[in-house]
Amino acid sequence: MEEKLIREPLYEKLKKKLLSTIETENLHMLPNERELMARFGVSRNTLRRAIFELTKENILRPVQGIGTIVYPVPEIVENSRILIVCDREMSVFQQEVFNLLLFHLNNSRLNTIVLMLDKENVDVDRFDTLLKTCDGVVIDQLCSYSPVILERIRKTGKKMVCLRWRPDFPGVPFVAENVNAGFHRLARHLIELGHTRIAYVGNILDQRRMIGLEKAFQESGLELLPELTFHLENGYREEGYQAADSLLKSGRRFTAVIAHNDACALGVEERLLIAGLRIPEEVSITGFDNLRESACYPVPLTTCCGDPERMIHEAIAYLFSTRNSGMMLEKMFEPRLIVRQSTARVPRQ
User: Fold this and answer.
1) Phi and psi torsions of 194, nearest 5°
2) 198-202 vs 229-231, strand pairing mode
3) How would you write the chain as a 3-class SS string?
4) CA-CA distance, 128 to 97, in Å (whole number)?
5) Helical (H) or strand (E) element with 269
6) More confident residue, 326 or 3
7) pLDDT score for 328
8) How far is C-alpha 71 from the chain's CA centre?
9) In this structure, how many other beta carbons lie within 10 angstroms of the beta carbon of residue 158?
10) Within a 13 Å sphere around the CA of 342, how many CA atoms are in the beta-carbon half?
11) Pairing with 261, which of 4, 8, 130, 329 sits 20 to 30 Å away (CA)?
12) pLDDT tens for residues 88-129?
């Protein structure tokens, strides 16, 4: 009697593919359902069955509001805590992503402790006490500059991650957007619209931005003109206003401005509009970060940013995953160009 062949269920095949993907891509969290269904060409039911089976095997753990964590630590329970450490002077682009972080954590079963401090004057005893009660730590851009904060966290052995910023100090795990690629795309966007007299209003010492800009100019046989470059320290709104004022007073011709960030771009817009210039008919402007208000500036702003939700999910998954626990997270997300009404083709002379 011939032996009947038993066909392997689709969800079993998918389980193997998911495990292979986890290993080869070093995942701390699975992509969302839509991505996985498109990637593997399976139905939602097949995908959910495979995830259910891997969850029973303690390989995956869905966490409401966060995503599906790979090789989760066993102690993810309702009283698991994340300590969020922010400096009191945190910038607007950080405020927005941390507000979103708090929203997602509130929708999950993870508890949150928020510590807002002065990174130059840390209450070490209180900080140590809070560290003892948490399971992981998220820090902001400014706190990543504090040797005291970093050292106190390292001494506890707790995992930490810097959110939406690549720290200047080595050895600090992070998730961030690729600023270099973002500024390359912004410059390419303006050059493709025919702009050659492009002013830059930003920190010229910030290689994250400068390398991307210079690459785009070189690819097009252009150069970032020194007489149209205005150095800023921080990229605040008032700095953008003052730089635009200096640009106007210089009398130099320009048809576009790339600003250090969205806050700076708002200051540039304000000054140019006061001067009677039309945006984008006479001058195009770009920012970076995609702040919420950039969509409703006096002229809605063309900008660029990574996906804050994906950064948040990756950060939390890293804190609660044992996947390659000895490896440090260094995750860069590709930014997308968001074209709005502040940019247009170069005006005819």
Assistant:
1) 100, 5
2) parallel
3) CCCCCCCCCHHHHHHHHHHHHHHHHCCCECCCHHHHHHHHCCCHHHHHHHHHHHHHCCCEEEECCCEEEECECCCCCCCCEEEEEEECCCCHHHHHHHHHHHHHHHHCCCEEEEEEECCCCCCHHHHHHHHHCCCEEEECCHHHHCHHHHHHHHHHCCCEEEECCCCCCCCCCEEEECHHHHHHHHHHHHHHCCCCCEEEEECCCCHHHHHHHHHHHHHCCCCCCHHHEEECCCCCHHHHHHHHHHHHHHCCCCCEEEECCHHHHHHHHHHHHHCCCCCCCCCEEECCCCCHHHHHCCCCCEEEECCHHHHHHHHHHHHCECCCCCCCCEEEECCEEECCCCCCCCCCC
4) 25
5) helix 262-274
6) 326
7) 82
8) 24
9) 16
10) 31
11) 329
12) 999 999 999 999 999 999 888 788 999 999 999 999 999 999
As given in the structure block, the two tokens for residue 255 are 């048809």
CB 84 within 8 A of CB 334: no
What residue type is assigned to position 54 of the chain?
A: L
Per-residue pLDDT at 343 exceeds 80:
yes
Burial 41-63 (b: 16+ CB within 10 A, else e): ebeeebbebbbebbeeeebbbeb
* Residue 300 host element (H or E): none
Which three-class secondary structure state does DSSP give residue 294?
Answer: helix
- Per-residue pLDDT tens digits for 38-66: 999 999 999 999 999 999 999 999 988 88
